[in-house]
């Protein structure tokens, strides 16, 4: 084991106990694509303070590290990750009588937070039903969903309900920042450009009829089911390519007749041309080769060059 990982392993063992510091852990089961080799070191953070301390140790030791939430929107290389993977399991959340929800960054938006808030009659998160994301991931990308219902036929963004968040700053300090700090945009927040990590976030929800919220959830889930492959049987990482304004990456791929195209175990789903699925024990190499083929084909046929929006993690 490289010296830097030996040092961080010893420090983590002292902090968490030897039973919680694991070696050579396969990452595929922890991603929605179900693809990826092993992490050299693997730990789970079970609270926001614990997450902060683990990250401080990783930074202090200058150890390569990666923070893993639900594992959506990423492709882990077949060679795995030659460093420390920190799985964020900090999931505590609380909801007060005024509809103020505070949730640690590892809390799962769907189903945990959505079910807890909508059953209590609080609106704001129901639009994101069915989308795999932790709070940390949702803040990072400004989670959004184009609602299919006529009275809500617009894109709903997470930033509409964000009040503030607690960050671990690059220097190890913990600081609360207001919504404005994030400079939210489409698929964007300031977190893209800094080394700050969300430890928890606070949202202001509005009172609503639980029956109405349940109907909205059902409508949104039905809409997604028609257009997105089910993760339990057709694992995917979500949209592969960035949106091209006014055109759409999926439409370009569809126009090139690439739905259903397959390399190895990776396939472009027939449901949505911008989503690739792990059809049959796909490797990361299968997916990368299929991505390359799509980029070359679309550019040749349409003149538009697609850019992947998923993150490539580890060794390929």
Q: Count of DSSP E strands? A: 19
Compressed to H and E, one letter per element, the order equals HEEHEEEEEHEHEEEEEEHEHEEEHE
> Residue-averaged pLDDT, rounded?
95
Number of individual domains: 3
What is the CATH fold-level name of the largest domain?
A: Uridine Diphospho-n-acetylenolpyruvylglucosamine Reductase, domain 3
Q: Nearest-angstrom radius of gyration? A: 20 Å
Level-2 CATH architecture of the largest domain: 2-Layer Sandwich
* Unreliable runs: none
Strand order, largest beta sheet:
6-7-13-11-12
CATH class of the largest domain: Alpha Beta
Biggest beta sheet attributes: 5 strands, antiparallel
**Helical segment count:** 7
Ends distance? 20 Å
Summing up helix and strand content along with how strands pair, one would put the structural category as alpha+beta
The share of residues in extended strands comes to 25-35%
Name the shape in a single word: globular
The percent of residues in helical segments reads 25-40%
């Amino acid at each position: 084991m490289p010296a830097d990982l030996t040092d961080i392993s010893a420090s983590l063992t002292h902090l968490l106990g030897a039973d919680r510091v694991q070696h050579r852990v396969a990452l595929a089961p922890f991603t929605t694509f179900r693809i990826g080799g092993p992490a050299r070191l693997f730990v789970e953070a079970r609270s926001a303070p614990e997450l902060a301390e683990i990250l401080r140790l990783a930074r202090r030791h200058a150890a390569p590290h990666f923070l893993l939430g639900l594992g959506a929107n990423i492709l882990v290389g077949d060679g795995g990750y030659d460093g420390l993977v920190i799985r964020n399991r900090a999931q505590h959340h609380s909801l007060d009588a005024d509809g103020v929800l505070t949730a640690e960054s590892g809390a799962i938006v769907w189903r945990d937070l959505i079910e807890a808030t909508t059953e209590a009659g609080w609106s704001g998160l129901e639009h994101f039903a069915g989308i795999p994301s932790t709070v940390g991931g949702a803040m990072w990308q400004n989670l959004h969903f184009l609602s299919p219902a006529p009275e809500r036929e617009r894109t709903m963004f997470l930033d509409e309900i964000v009040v503030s968040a607690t960050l671990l700053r690059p220097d190890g300090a913990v600081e609360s920042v207001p919504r404005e700090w994030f400079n939210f945009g489409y698929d964007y927040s300031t977190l893209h450009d800094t080394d700050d990590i969300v430890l928890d976030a606070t949202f202001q929800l509005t009172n609503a009829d639980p029956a109405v919220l349940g109907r909205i959830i059902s409508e949104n889930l039905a809409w997604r089911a028609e257009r997105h492959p089910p993760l339990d049987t057709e694992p995917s990482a979500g949209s592969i390519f960035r949106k091209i304004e006014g055109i759409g990456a999926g439409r370009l791929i569809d126009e090139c007749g690439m739905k259903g195209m397959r390399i190895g175990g990776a396939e472009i789903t027939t449901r949505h041309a911008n989503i690739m699925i792990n059809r049959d024990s796909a490797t990361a190499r299968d997916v990368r080769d299929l991505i390359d083929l799509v980029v070359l084909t679309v550019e040749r046929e349409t003149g538009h060059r697609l850019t992947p929006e998923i993150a490539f993690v580890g060794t390929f």
